[in-house]
């Protein structure tokens, strides 16, 4: 299992039977490999409720894709609907959990996941809507950037996606949650140590 | 009532400076035959309302290469490099909307709603120049409706009257765009001019559809 799958597997433990879950592009999409998609209902903002596992080559139907425009399958009881109805589900508070990737997340729980400074801001997709409307937000991300810099930081250096604060961060090293005093460490991965987590996290955190 | 028209008749509908809604999420549910016709028309200086401007060289991407588009209104353009390049050269204006806000603007446009307040994008750079209204303690952004001269949509099947059903997740923006434009042209995979679709399965009732054309394979 690679690092991304490892993170996705840990996220899957936070999801429960009956939950309606939206999975962002990247690591979050991998979560379908670790859950029973007939009992946890995956919503895709392009208009599907009831996304299943990735298709085998023979099963690919280019009219059944997820928000990352990748082919997916559907489960029994799935439905298709238009984009405005799909976002009514999102903004209207009908999604229990959204799992999102990030560029950065702050110690207060604010995230940046849509725009890079210095580059033309030409894409937002459904990121802001998902943050606004989902009951719970889990960030699924590698602990550091490709060049080893912390993704969990004191202050966002990239444009924030919403005023809404997230509820949980899952990385390959640790799991963090938030309470009224801000971020705290909930769990250290068995392959890591408190020392490593402290070293690779750009913000002070409590251990709880 | 036969709504089928020829490609020649469709070409006469396209004019300079029009605002055109185009269905699809990336290429999925995109009316590729109609887009191909538009790319072969003389129409330029167009405003295109669509989630994306196709992919590089595909779908609406062809119009970008032809420099037929003056402005794009949508939610995600980053994956088409030609769009980014045209934007950086000031050849293309972009209006970025959160995807849900965009969908609801089109729905409002088709439903006779003069605008709405939405929480999405409050406190971000996208709402910098928007009217903010506090309703019961929560800040909302005002958003105007979107309408167009023409909507180009893609469906799976049309019946004798022009009622439509869609193909799985290729539905996306198509049904709402069908409600929000003066002229609506549906590109469908199967035209059945002999029968009626079942009332329970119809997604877009025929009153919204002006013309129907059969989908042809487009590269």
Features:
heterodimer; A: 208 residues; alpha/beta; Glutaconate Coenzyme A-transferase; 10-stranded mixed beta sheet; 3-stranded mixed beta sheet; 16% helix; B: 219 residues; 8-stranded mixed beta sheet; 3-stranded antiparallel beta sheet; 6 helices; globular
Looking at the structure, what is the overall shape of chain A?
Answer: globular
Structural class by helix and strand composition of chain B: alpha/beta
Q: Mind summarizing the main beta sheet of chain B?
A: 8 strands, mixed
Task: Quote the beta fraction of chain B.
Answer: 25-35%
Radius of gyration of chain A using CA atoms only: 17 Å
CATH topology of chain A: Glutaconate Coenzyme A-transferase
CATH class of chain B: Alpha Beta
CATH topology call of chain B: Glutaconate Coenzyme A-transferase
Oligomer: heterodimer
Proportion of residues in helical segments of chain A: 10-25%
Strand content of chain A: 25-35%
The largest contact between protein chains, plus residue counts on each side, is: A-B, 40 and 47 residues
Distance between the termini of chain A: 28 Å
What would you say this structure looks like, in words?
Chain B: It holds the Pfam family CoA_trans. Chain B: InterPro entries: 3-oxoacid_CoA-transf_A (IPR012792), CoA_trans_fam_I (IPR004165), CoA_transf_BS (IPR004163), NagB/RpiA_transferase-like (IPR037171). Chain B: GO terms for molecular function: transferase activity. Chain A is built from 4 helices and 13 strands. With 208 residues, chain A is of the alpha/beta class. Chain A has one domain (3-207): 3-Layer(aba) Sandwich (Glutaconate Coenzyme A-transferase). Chain A has a 10-stranded mixed sheet with strand order 4-3-2-1-5-8-10-11-12-13. A 3-stranded mixed sheet of chain A has the order 7-6-9, with no helix packed on it. The longest helix of chain A has 10 residues, at 3-12. In chain B, strands 1, 2, 3, 4, 8, 9, 10 and 11 form an 8-stranded mixed sheet that branches. Chain B has a 3-stranded antiparallel sheet with strand order 5-7-6. Chain B is built from 6 helices and 11 strands. The two termini of chain B are 31 Å apart. Chain B has one domain: Glutaconate Coenzyme A-transferase (3-Layer(aba) Sandwich). With 219 residues, chain B is an alpha/beta fold. The longest helix of chain B is centred in the middle third of the chain and has 13 residues, at 99-111. In chain B, β6 (132-135) and β7 form a beta hairpin. At the A-B interface, α2 and α3 of A face α4, α5 and α6 of B.
């Amino acid at each position: 299992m690679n690092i991304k799958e490892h993170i996705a597997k840990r996220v899957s433990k936070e999801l429960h039977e009956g939950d309606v879950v939206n999975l962002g592009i990247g690591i979050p999409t991998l979560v379908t490999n670790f859950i029973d998609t007939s009992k946890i209902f995956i919503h895709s903002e392009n208009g599907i409720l009831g996304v299943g596992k990735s298709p085998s080559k023979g099963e690919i139907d280019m009219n059944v894709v997820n928000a990352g425009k990748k082919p997916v399958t559907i489960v029994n009881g799935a439905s298709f609907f238009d984009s405005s109805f799909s976002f009514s589900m999102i903004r209207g508070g009908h999604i229990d959990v959204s799992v999102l990737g990030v560029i950065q997340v702050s110690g207060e729980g604010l995230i940046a996941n849509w725009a890079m400074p210095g580059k033309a801001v030409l894409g937002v997709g459904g990121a802001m809507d998902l943050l606004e409307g989902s009951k719970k937000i889990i960030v699924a991300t590698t602990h550091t950037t490709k060049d080893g810099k912390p993704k969990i930081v004191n202050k966002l250096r990239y444009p924030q996606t919403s005023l809404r604060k997230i509820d949980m961060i899952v990385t390959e090293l640790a799991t963090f949650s938030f309470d009224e005093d801000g971020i705290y460490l909930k769990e250290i991965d068995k392959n890591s140590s408190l020392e490593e987590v402290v070293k690779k996290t750009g913000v002070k955190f409590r251990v709880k | 009532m036969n709504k089928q028209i020829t490609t020649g008749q469709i070409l006469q509908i396209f004019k300079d400076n029009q605002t055109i809604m185009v269905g699809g999420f990336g290429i999925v549910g995109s009316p590729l035959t109609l887009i191909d016709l538009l790319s072969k028309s003389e129409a330029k200086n167009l405003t295109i309302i669509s989630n994306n401007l196709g992919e590089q060289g595909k779908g609406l991407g062809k119009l970008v290469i032809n420099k037929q588009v003056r402005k794009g209104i949508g939610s995600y353009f980053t994956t088409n490099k030609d769009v980014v390049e045209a934007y950086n050269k000031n050849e293309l204006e972009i209006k970025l909307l959160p995807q849900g806000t965009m969908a609801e603007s089109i729905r409002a446009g088709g439903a006779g709603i003069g605008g709405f307040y939405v929480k999405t994008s409050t406190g971000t750079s996208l709402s910098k120049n928007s009217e903010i209204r506090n309703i019961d303690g929560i800040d909302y952004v005002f958003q105007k409706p979107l309408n167009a001269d023409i909507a180009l949509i893609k469906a799976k099947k049309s019946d004798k009257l022009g009622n439509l059903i869609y193909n799985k997740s290729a539905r996306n923006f198509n049904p709402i765009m069908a409600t929000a434009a003066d002229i609506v042209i549906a590109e469908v995979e199967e035209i059945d001019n002999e029968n009626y679709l079942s009332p329970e399965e119809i997604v877009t009732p025929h009153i919204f559809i002006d013309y129907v054309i059969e989908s042809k394979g487009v590269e």
